[in-house]
């Protein structure tokens, strides 16, 4: 199974209608789980405190009108018709928008960016491909200002991080409110004083089971997700139609905006405060954009417009029709979802609701893992262990540390609040903040990436920003009643992200300022003044040029090194995927006889990092291919290094190949046919038997083969960061306390390479930044 080629095929494939419809069906379980379960708690949260259901029905019809137009304007118009078009080579989400802006305006937050990265196929912007018009005067000025003003670049990064932190906060709140609301159906079947003793323990047990099973991956039960949500949507729409026909066939009149005016006129400030509950009808809308990479734009649009949207509208209309004929409300829980379900169907619907809530929670948990992986790849989150739970489904990952943190926080919210009103206040603020961030970033995308007139961006911000600001203000006013939770969570995660990003930048600056000149290497002679031993030494560095200080620090204390040295830089670029044929940038460090190479391995923020055995095989094979295909071997004097793009083993059909063989084999022969890629423990290089291969080149390949059989050692730098003497208090706290705490308690640089413990050597250095 070649993950890289499979991923690339998923991006460029031309989809047939059968494929589109299949993806639309599958998207029900992944994308729409959260949005589909919102009828469980919207009316209950809305009527919890601020407004009351009266005989005139002005409140219930006004709420229905607000729900209808909110779902129509935000998920349908904004996301389905506009935002989904702003994909980053098929990927969506907050970081996809930020990645687009990074490429079009060159505001990249990654320190190790190179001009060579802009030659990547997926990096190229539309105007470079000739598909778009040149930028307008305002767009060019805006781009120039963003590129020059570092403050604006930081503001843009913080804005993207705020949206990301709120998504993580939603990953805590959505499972809590979804499962708790589904379980609350037992309140109609038990005594009033007993149901609270059942709801919380039952919800906690389900949540613990949900998080405990994450390490198995969703692919084992993923085939059940779409049928569960499909059954749930059919269930709520059928119940909705029944309630409309049986209780109030004229409820459709409440869809008129006039009822919103009547609602606000009658309830005034109380009605405005109740908008925080109405807002919950669009929770999960961001998932349509965030999960775009797993499906396609057309499939998500078809699923929403043909099934999800009408089912939700019918469900809300049915609840309103029932409540318009039932005014004997003793407690707010009597306005919940289950009261409108026919009594004979309540237990089956309860089971389906719990299953749908679990599916919706699973989707947001997986999405949280995915966005943390993106943050980590772009240097905005500490290194964490990422486990790929499926070899067939790209993007199915599991992060143990984050999983248990989410579980603890989710249980704390459930036990601490114990009611949907405060959970709803918390969830609503997280959801609407992410939408506001998306609106702000989209306005820049419209101008800088789509090259539209500035008035389109202004109209987009004013129209959707006004709607979302209204809901945001209604949610923020409930700060003391639960809305403080997403703010507190976001501030904690934002502090972690900003601290790690700042420390990473300072560490890179130190590396650049203290790197060793290549001229220093030349002065050492061919042996570099040290003893060369059998094997390959991979020196991990963040630098894309020059020799890292760790090398001189090591040879000063231990004057021996491997016969082949590779300065290895594994870095992320602001694109979702890097194609296998563009994976490696290779060049020489020093003269040819030094047997020293520089290898820059480029990954997109959604790419799968290979394990150590595959990575070693690809790396050594690509170095061999670089040696073979090098047309002119020029000795490098100074800092200028000639770099060549080399793909993975599976991308070149001629030249050097790796073949599975017994240990100890170092034979060189001609290739017959390209074999399928598979995991190997030993490689040998197969080069064409032709006079064009110089004797010197053949000797270099033989020496590389010998070194590979001698083993690969990973040399890592373990930097202890300290603020310089005389630094300010804030900097000392951030570097000496914050960054060092995160560095000591998270994964080290070995995670980026997935290098084996037995072959890893860490070299400690103190960085005074």
From TrEMBL:
Keywords: Ion transport, Membrane, Potassium, Potassium transport, Transmembrane, Transmembrane helix, Transport. It is found in: Cell membrane; Membrane. Residues 23-522 form the K+ potassium transporter integral membrane domain. InterPro entries: K+_transporter, K_trans_C, K_trans_N. Pfam families: K_trans, K_trans_C. It comes from the Eukaryota. The chain crosses the membrane at residues 60-81, 155-177, 197-216, 223-245, 271-290, 302-325, 345-372, 393-417, 429-448, 455-477, 483-503. One of its GO terms (molecular function) is potassium ion transmembrane transporter activity. Belongs to the HAK/KUP transporter (TC 2.A.72.3) family. This is Potassium transporter. It comes from Eruca vesicaria subsp. sativa.
């Amino acid at each position: 199974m070649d993950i890289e080629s499979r991923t690339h095929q998923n991006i460029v494939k031309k989809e047939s209608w059968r494929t589109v419809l299949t993806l639309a069906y599958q998207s029900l379980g992944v994308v729409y789980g959260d949005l589909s379960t919102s009828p469980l708690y919207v009316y209950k949260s809305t009527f919890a405190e601020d407004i009351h259901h009266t005989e005139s029905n002005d409140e219930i019809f006004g709420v229905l009108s607000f729900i209808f137009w909110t779902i129509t304007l935000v998920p349908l118009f904004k996301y389905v018709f506009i935002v989904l078009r702003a994909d980053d080579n098929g990927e969506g989400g907050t970081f996809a928008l930020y990645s687009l802006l990074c490429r079009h305006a060159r505001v990249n937050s990654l320190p190790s960016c190179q001009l060579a990265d802009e030659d990547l196929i997926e990096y190229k912007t539309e105007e470079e491909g000739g598909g778009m018009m040149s930028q307008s005067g305002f767009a060019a000025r805006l781009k120039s200002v963003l590129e020059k003003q570092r403050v604006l670049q930081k503001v843009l990064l913080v804005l993207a991080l705020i949206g990301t932190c709120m998504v993580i906060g939603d990953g805590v709140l959505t499972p809590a409110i979804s499962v708790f609301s589904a379980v609350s159906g037992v309140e109609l079947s038990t005594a009033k004083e007993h149901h609270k003793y059942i709801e919380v323990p039952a919800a906690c047990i389900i949540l613990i089971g949900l998080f405990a099973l994450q390490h198995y991956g969703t692919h084992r039960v993923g085939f059940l997700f779409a049928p569960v949500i499909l059954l749930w949507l059919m269930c709520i729409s059928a119940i909705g139609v029944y309630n409309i026909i049986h209780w109030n066939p004229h409820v459709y009149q409440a869809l008129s905006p006039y009822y919103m005016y009547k609602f606000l006129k009658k309830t005034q400030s109380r009605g405005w405060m109740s908008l925080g509950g109405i807002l919950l009808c669009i929770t999960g809308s961001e998932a349509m954009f965030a999960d775009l990479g797993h499906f396609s734009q057309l499939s998500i649009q078809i699923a929403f417009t043909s099934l999800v949207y009408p089912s939700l509208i019918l469900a809300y209309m049915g609840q309103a029709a029932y409540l318009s004929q039932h005014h004997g409300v003793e407690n707010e829980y009597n306005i919940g979802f289950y009261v409108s379900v026919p009594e004979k169907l309540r237990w089956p619907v309860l089971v389906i609701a719990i299953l749908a809530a679990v599916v919706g929670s699973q989707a947001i948990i997986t999405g949280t893992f995915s966005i943390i992986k993106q943050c980590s790849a772009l240097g905005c989150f500490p290194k964490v262990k990422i486990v790929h739970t499926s070899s067939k489904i790209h993007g199915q990952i599991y992060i143990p540390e984050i999983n248990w943190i989410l579980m603890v926080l989710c249980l704390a919210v459930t036990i601490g609040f114990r009611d949907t009103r405060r959970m709803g206040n918390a969830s609503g603020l997280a959801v609407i903040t992410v939408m506001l961030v998306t609106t702000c970033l989209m306005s820049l995308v419209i101008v800088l990436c789509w090259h539209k007139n500035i008035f389109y961006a202004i109209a987009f911000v004013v129209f959707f920003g006004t709607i979302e600001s209204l809901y945001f203000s209604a949610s923020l006013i409930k700060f003391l009643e639960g809305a403080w939770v997403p703010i507190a969570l976001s501030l904690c995660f934002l502090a972690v992200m900003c601290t790690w990003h700042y420390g990473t930048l300072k560490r890179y600056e130190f590396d650049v300022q203290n790197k060793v000149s290549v001229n220093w290497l030349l002065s050492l002679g061919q042996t570099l003044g040290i003893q060369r031993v059998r094997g390959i030494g991979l020196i991990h560095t963040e630098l894309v040029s020059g020799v890292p200080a760790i090398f001189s620090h090591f040879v000063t204390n231990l004057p021996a090194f491997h016969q082949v040295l590779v300065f290895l830089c594994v870095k992320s670029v602001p694109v979702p995927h890097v194609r296998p044929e563009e994976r490696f940038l290779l060049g020489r460090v020093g003269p040819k006889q030094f047997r020293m190479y520089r290898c820059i391995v480029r990954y997109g923020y959604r790419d799968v990092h290979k394990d150590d055995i595959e990575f070693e095989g690809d790396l050594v094979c690509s170095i061999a291919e670089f040696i073979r295909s090098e047309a002119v071997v020029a000795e490098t004097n100074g800092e200028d290094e000639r770099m060549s793009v080399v793909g993975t083993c599976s991308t070149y059909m001629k030249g050097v190949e790796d073949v599975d063989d017994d240990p100890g084999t170092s034979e060189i022969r001609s290739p017959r046919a390209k074999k399928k890629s598979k995991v190997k423990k030993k490689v040998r290089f197969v080069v064409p038997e032709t006079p064009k291969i110089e004797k010197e080149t053949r000797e270099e390949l033989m020496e590389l083969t010998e070194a590979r059989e001698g083993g690969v050692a990973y040399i890592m730098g373990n930097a202890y960061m300290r603020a310089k003497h005389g630094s300010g208090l804030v900097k000392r706290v951030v570097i000496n306390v914050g960054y060092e705490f995160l560095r000591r308690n998270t994964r080290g640089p070995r995670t980026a390479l997935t290098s084996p413990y037995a072959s890893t050597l860490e070299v400690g250095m103190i960085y005074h930044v």
